[in-house]
Amino acid sequence: MLRHLPNLLSVLRLLAAPLAAWAILADHDTAALVIFAGAGLSDFADGFIARRWGFASRFGAWLDPIADKLLMLLCFVALLAIGATPFWLVVLVIARDAVIVGGALLAKVLNLPLRIEALAIGKAATVVQLGYVGGLLLLLAFDQAAPRLVLAGSYTVAVFLVLSGAVYCFLFLRALLFGRRTA
């Protein structure tokens, strides 16, 4: 049973994503913060457990990023719906993930020498997004406004998204144009 714990945590994160978005939309800010924080902690826990005890699996390697993307996507869209985050940032979050997924699928179809794996910049972008959404939820839970902080956070997330998207695009183009193995 312990062997399946990382995947179970990822499945719970998948289930938490729509619940967190619903809590944001329903103005249950503290509940949204708790759900989101629990989901964020489960992301670190499942990775740690999988690496520490060798419980990594191929299924988990796909499930974990899907759970992360769904949590981010639904929370960003819910935060946009309540006016807590700017439209342009949500578009950037969606566009970057769509480009990465589209590139990975195209690489698979074209049988390119592209190894699909998370890069350090991609992981950093995820951490920055987690911090941004968590910070917004914290502000909402305590009924506080910090427009300059939120704007600075928005720009920080945008920089990480653009940088990580550019690195993934570069690796894809290198594999496409030169047939070089990436990463």
Order of helices and strands: HHHHHH
Distance between the termini: 33 Å
Number of helices: 6
Low-confidence stretches: none
Structural class: mainly alpha
Mean pLDDT, all residues = 91
Instruction: Characterize the overall form.
Output: globular
Give the helix level as a range of percent: over 70%
Strand content: under 5%
The strand count comes to 0
Compute the CA-based radius of gyration.
17 Å
**Main beta sheet, described?**
none
Q: Would you give an account of this structure?
A:
It is built from six helices and no strands. Helix 1 runs parallel beside helix 3, helix 3 packs antiparallel against helix 4 and helix 4 runs parallel beside helix 6. It has 183 residues and is an all-alpha fold. 80% of the residues lie in helices and 0% in strands.
Features:
mainly alpha; globular; 183 residues
In a nutshell, what does this entry contain?
The model has no long low-confidence stretch (mean pLDDT 91).
Topology (SSEs and partners):
Blueprint: H1 5-25, H2 29-52, H3 58-81, H4 87-109, H5 120-141, H6 147-178
Helix pairs in contact: 1-2, 1-3, 2-5, 3-4, 3-5, 4-6, 5-6
